[in-house]
Amino acid sequence: MHPTRRTLIAASLSIAFALAPLTSIFAASPAPVKGEHGMVVTAQHLASEVGVEVLKKGGNAVDAAVAVGYALAVVYPNAGNIGGGGFMTIRFKDGKSTFLDFRERAPLAATKTMYLDKDGNPVKGASLDGYLAVGVPGSVAGFETAREKYGTLSRQDLMAPAINYAKDGFILDQGDTASFSGSAARLAKDPAAAAIFLKPDGKSYAIGDRLIQPDLAASLAAISEKGPDAFYKGAIADAIVKASGAKGGILARQDFEQYAVRELKPVTCFYRGYEVTSSPPPSSGGVIICEILNVLEGYPLSYLGAGSAETVHVMVEAMRHAYVDRNSALGDPDFVDNPVSKLLDKTYAKDIRDRIDPFRAGVSQDLMPKGFGESKETTHYSIIDNDGNAVAVTYTLNGSFGAGVVADGTGILLNNEMDDFTQKPGVPNLYGLVQGEANAIQPKKTPLSSMSPTVVAKDGKPFMVIGSPGGSRIITITLEAIVNVIDHGMNIQEAIDAPRIHHQWLPDTVYIEPFGLSPDTEKLLAGMGYHLDPSSTTWGQAAGILVGGKSLAEIEKGGGARYNGAIDSRAASGEALGY
Ligand code: DON
């Protein structure tokens, strides 16, 4: 009797399994970086070094996060900043956690229709370029609040490395110069920005050039010496308000004087026994990650397999349902009632599962359209110290180099975070998000964010620190890294590097990373009714840490490194650094 093709395959597979070691038989990614006392993962290697030095000097993870935040403002100027804002999720060694919201606020003179023309249509670029796009920055207040409440070292100590890199400069590598050349045309429009980020001949900096930022060094030195008042109540605020007034903006001194950090309770949820702690509104991140995880908990993802058509199907449907909620129901908690407990309810997740057809793609237009829209350069870093304090920070100028403007003499790039608001219901923003009234512009309001600095714990101990830039995709990037570790058994580097998928309700398209799915899988999905788009490029740069081993299997077996760091292979100049 001749063996069938199926029995031959089964026989060869059993031989392969018999020969294969229990761990993975090939490496799709470089090995995660190991550390026993601390780990710092950022998108720029010099900033990672700054963080590790702070930890070695006895600073805790919050100290390191503050020093890294200031350092990135110098060595990663397309997203690191003191002219923007962000979020910090902290999980302390005793298991308690907190969240600092230092995101931008709309200026007092902002109005709901400020980006619309007389016919009610959005004016192209108005919420993205120049001073009208700028929200009141929060980073300086945020870092100082973190340091004063939870840090241990002096402001001067934590800011010194940033000041030195601004004053003495640093040598640009390939990853650094790529971001400069991509934004050269925009930066050229603002003389003060051009004077810093372009060479005197108007060309972009090249690999091996030294970038020196003396004005930024002076601004940082003033903040180091006098504290945040130097930024919010002194010469820096005056210079920004003056430039704003002269160039079509609406920022006023009062906006700066009134800026206040909010300390909020993070969003938490349980996924297969793991406790996820992440960003609450004014971010949509934590709520939507938890909503998607709650839906996915009802499916055997591990059995269905990473990247299979069935896994992609249920993930996309969970994303579709959750992003309708994101885009319609969420906003700044000082202005709107966020239905957080409803969205995090496990029975709500079951209702969503009941509406998912096991064999067919859903249709976004069939879900109640309540809102639409989001934007493109942000950075995330993850830190853990010897005591087990874990800090996840995502902060941003929104677009790469923000609004592309610098007030004379300050050296400080300003954000274009106002684009994260709904300009007009139904009109997509920079990230294609179609949003609603809950995120309409109002004075002092914070635009809805997707930033999701996240800490995952298991049995009361830190398990994973994770987050990413990527506009509206931050949520699905962070989610997929978590699922890849917990359900698919990938190590932290593989989990971060693995090809990504994304769906955000509208447009009704599954974005897939080039070569991310096999042609067979794509065919299966198309047969279910999905429209797949492999052409887009915004896939973020996740930065993660896994505690106790490089993968779940190693953690369970015991004997893995205490801290295992991974910077996304998509992040050209980043580094995971342990000690
Ligand atoms: O807060 C937000 O959700 C956006 N402003 C983040 C922008 C971003 O991630 C850009 N990076 N690629």
Write structural notes for this entry.
The N terminus is likely disordered. The protein contains 21 helices and 19 strands. The termini are far apart. The chain has one domain: Gamma-glutamyltranspeptidase, small (S) subunit (Glutamine Phosphoribosylpyrophosphate, subunit 1, domain 1), CATH 3.60.20.40. It has 579 residues and is α+β, with helices and mostly antiparallel strands. Helix 2 packs antiparallel against helix 3, helix 13 packs across helix 17 and helix 13 crosses helix 18. The protein is globular. Strands 1-18-17-13-12-9-8 form a 7-stranded antiparallel sheet. It has a 7-stranded antiparallel sheet with strand order 7-4-3-11-10-2-19. A 3-stranded mixed sheet has the order 14-15-16. The chain binds 6-diazenyl-5-OXO-L-norleucine.
Question: What does this entry show, briefly?
Answer:
The protein is α+β, with helices and mostly antiparallel strands and 579 residues long.
Point out poorly predicted stretches: 1-26, 369-376
Question: Architecture, CATH level 2?
Answer: 4-Layer Sandwich
The kinds of small molecule bound in this structure are: 6-diazenyl-5-OXO-L-norleucine
Quote the average pLDDT: 92
Major sheet summary line: 7 strands, antiparallel
The CATH fourth-level homologous superfamily: Gamma-glutamyltranspeptidase, small (S) subunit
What is the percent of helical residues?
25-40%
- Please state the overall shape, judged from the principal axes of the Cα atoms: globular
* CATH hierarchy class name: Alpha Beta
Pfam families: G_glu_transpept (PF01019)
Pathway: Sulfur metabolism; glutathione metabolism
GO molecular function: leukotriene C4 gamma-glutamyl transferase activity
EC number: 2.3.2.2, 3.4.19.13
